[in-house]
Amino acid sequence: MVKGISRRVVVVDSPDQRYFEQAIFIVRNDAAGEGVTSRELVEEARRVARNYAEGSGRLGHTLRNLHPAVYSLMGAAALGLVWMLAWLI
Fold first, then answer.
1. This prediction's pTM
2. 10-residue block means of pLDDT along the chain (89 residues)?
3. 8 Å CB contact between 12 and 25
4. Which of 26, 21, 30 is CA-nearest to residue 10?
5. 20 to 30 Å CA-CA from 88: which of 13, 39, 55, 72?
6. What are phi and psi of 22, to 5 degrees?
């Protein structure tokens, strides 16, 4: 079924096309009334796509880049804490 509504979209090409070719953003109807230029819309779409591709913020990115030895130390510390709490109770 075809509806008689036209929409504005911004298409952003993926820098790494292993998994995705493009991201398509549908522009809100009231965005044009707020004095937003086409260039600003494209830059915002690129920023959103880049942030989404990077993951869930800086903490997620930092944890992903840790050396496996750091994960081992964190696990040992957590296990030691559990043992210490079990001994106190």
1. 0.50
2. 75 80 85 78 85 63 76 91 90
3. yes
4. 26
5. 72
6. -145, 155
Dist CA 51 CA 27 (whole Å): 18
Instruction: Give the phi and the psi of residue 30 in degrees, each rounded to 5.
Output: -85, 0
β-pairing verdict for 22-26 and 9-13: antiparallel
DSSP-assigned letters across all residues of the chain:
---S----EEEEE-SSTTT-SEEEEEPPGGGGGGT--HHHHHHHHHHHHHHHHH-SHHHHHHHHTS-HHHHHHHHHHHHHHHHHHHHH-
User: Which residue type does 55 have?
Assistant: G
Instruction: Give me 36's structure tokens.
Output: 């937003």
